[in-house]
Amino acid sequence: MFARLNVFTKITLLFVALLVLVLFLYTYSNRESVRVIKHEIQNNTMNHLSTFADSVESNIYQLSLYGLSIGQDSSIQEYQRPDYKDVPYERVKVGSAILEKINLYNAASKWHSTITLYFPRLQKVISTDYYAYIPYRKDEFSKPLSKSWAYTHEQFEWYTTDPTTAMDTPGKSRLITKISFPVHHLIAMLDQNKLNNKGDPFMFHPDLGLISNSSANETLNAIQSKLKATKLSDKGGFTATLDRTEYYVSYIQSGSLGWYYVDYVPMQQILGPITNSRNLFYASIAVLIAMSVVVLYVLYRSVQLPLLQLVKGTNRLSTGDFSVRLHYTSRNEFSLLFARFNIMAQRIQELIENVYEEQLRRREATLKQLQSQINPHFLYNCLFYIKNMARMKNEKAVVAMALNLGEYYRYITRSENDQATIKEELTMVKNYLEIQALRLERMHYTIDVPDDMLHKTLPRLTLQPIVENAIIHGIEPRTEDGHITITGHHTDELSTITVEDSGRGMTENQMQELTNNLHKPLDGSMGCGTWNVHQRLSFLYGERAGLSYEHGSRGGVKVSITWYNNINE
User: Fold this and answer.
1) Which residues contact 299 (CB under 8 A, 6 or more apart)?
2) Is the preceding peptide bond at 163 cis, omega within 30 degrees of 0?
3) String of b and e for 423-444 (b: at least 16 CB within 10 Å)?
4) Which residues, in sequence order, are CB contacts of 481 under 8 Å at separation 6+?
5) In what residue span(s) does the HAMP domain sit (predicted)?
6) Which of 67, 109, 263, 392 is the most interior residue, by most CB within 10 Å?
């Protein structure tokens, strides 16, 4: 099917296919680049968040480890000696030593924490919080202690007992260690992480809210809503669109605190150069398409339309329409080609017309030659009729035959003018009919042509061949009386003379064959008279002029001679 398309359509389709292919390849490449970069962003964000989580977990682990090991310190064991009951000074001295060790630990630790030691048996408390008096209350440890870090009052707390099996009944333990650290340690680490990694990390808990860095923006509230609406696992990430901006949110759950370390990055900020490059490419494609449309339009106007005109012109030439002429206003190679085409068509038309006219002249000469030779049978019949009438002393019949025969041959042998008026043609036909009426007493005729038609002209000897055929083929074969009717009518544009006989008529096939012969080249098997009449009328007055056959109302054949009003009027 592609091979049947014209050249312009093929070029257009190939150009469109090329643009579509380039657009598809670039779009696929762009998507792959974006996918790879998004994957790298997600991995990078998760790696940074993992490093931050490990750092926080390391500090919390150190605090937890110290809380477990502090109960094994010898000073703690000595502080609980029963014999110090009677020696308060020694217990106070050991307590001071314990507090000094705890402060030394705080000094060496990255985080400053508050360590509080509860001695249920002694009902005493030792704490690094110098600014608060912490009394021992029995009801505080009447319930089981949490085995994980708890968040309360802007700080995290963690408890351990000695022995460790006493977590469910802390009031019966020898020692309860409480380690707490304020939230600002986590905020400081979040600030440091944000400064180093250009992210915006924070901590999130589904029930307790969030802990943000000190320079957090309002986007955290929207991220928090997304986190609450998402089923979170231990570690993962997801994309969220907020205010037409796409973010990637990664999270890791803290094994010790139970909170989630969360960080998010705006994807568009990182993908901005790629997006700008993509938009620039699409804009370039749009400009290229617009320019392509202009170029294709110019090609269509400058090449395709002239080619179509040439194709149509050659097609009309091939069908025999040599009057075709091409009109082209632009001045380029096609204007020269059109001019040469017009010259070629004009010369072909002139050649065809000359050949056709020459053929008509040859046929006209043939007809005149036939007319000049005089039909021997017709002439012999007329002369025998005169001889018989002379023997019968019928002077009137002899005179009538001689006068009509003389007028008839005088008219048909005249060659100085190819055109004749209808009046002259009818006079000649009347002479011919009178001759035939004298020979065939059973033949009658009627001529009814309006007077305003008599001055119109048509080619000489147009009516005589039609009337002759009506007599020879229609009236003579019958033994009954025959009648020939000649009528005429006209309009502003065309004139028509009808010759109708009451003869034996023709079948539909015979009439169709006779009509077809009028448009074929003349050969030996065809009659020359009616064919020549039709060809002369068509040549002089156009294709719509000529002869037409139909069945007559009296059983014979009705022949209509039609022609346009000529220029001689």
Assistant:
1) 8, 11
2) yes
3) ebbbbbbbbbbbbbbbbeeebe
4) 442, 443, 444
5) 301-353
6) 263
222 in Cβ contact with 230 (< 8 Å) = no
Beta bridge partners of 447: 486
Residues sharing a CB contact under 8 Å with residue 529, sequence separation 6 or more, in sequence order? 367, 465, 468, 469
* Residue 338: closest CA among 361, 364, 312, 372: 312
Nearest to 251 by CA among 267, 262, 265: 262
**Average confidence score pLDDT of the chain:** 82
Alpha helices in 376-527 (DSSP H): 376-391, 395-412, 422-439, 463-469, 508-517
Burial of 74 (0-12, 13-18, 19+ CB in 10 A): exposed
Give per-residue pLDDT as tens, 393-417. Answer: 778 878 888 888 788 777 777 656 7
> Considering the chain, what percentage of its residues have pLDDT values greater than 90?
7
Cβ atoms of 179 and 115 within 8 Å: the answer is yes
Q: How many C-alpha atoms does 310 have within 13 Å on its Cβ side?
A: 16
pLDDT at 561: 93
> Which 3 state secondary structure label does DSSP give 452?
helix
What is the distance between the terminal CA atoms of the chain, rounded to a whole angstrom? Answer: 58
Q: Are 408 and 432 in contact (CB under 8 A)?
A: yes
Angle, helix 305-318 to helix 333-373, in steps of 10 degrees: 10
Q: Looking up tokens 């380690």, which residue turns up? A: 179
Q: How far apart are CA 503 and CA 555, in angstroms?
A: 7
Angle at 65 between CA 59 and CA 68, to 5 degrees: 145
Report the half-sphere exposure of 224 (CA within 13 A, side-chain side): 18
* Amino acid at residue number 429: V
- Cα separation, 265 vs 200, in Å, equals 7
Rounded (10°) CA dihedral 541, 542, 543, 549 = -10
Secondary structure class of 485 (helix, strand, coil): strand
Whose CA is closest to 270, among 11, 424, 39?
39
Give one word for 183, left, alpha or beta, with left for phi > 0 and alpha for psi -120 to 50.
alpha
63-111 pLDDT tens trace: 888 888 887 778 888 887 777 766 777 778 888 888 888 888 877 777 8
CA 320 vs CA 265, 323, 455, 473, 487: distances in Å: 79, 9, 35, 36, 36
Q: What whole-number distance in Å separates Cα of residue 391 and Cα of residue 404?
A: 20
Beta pairing partners, 419: 459
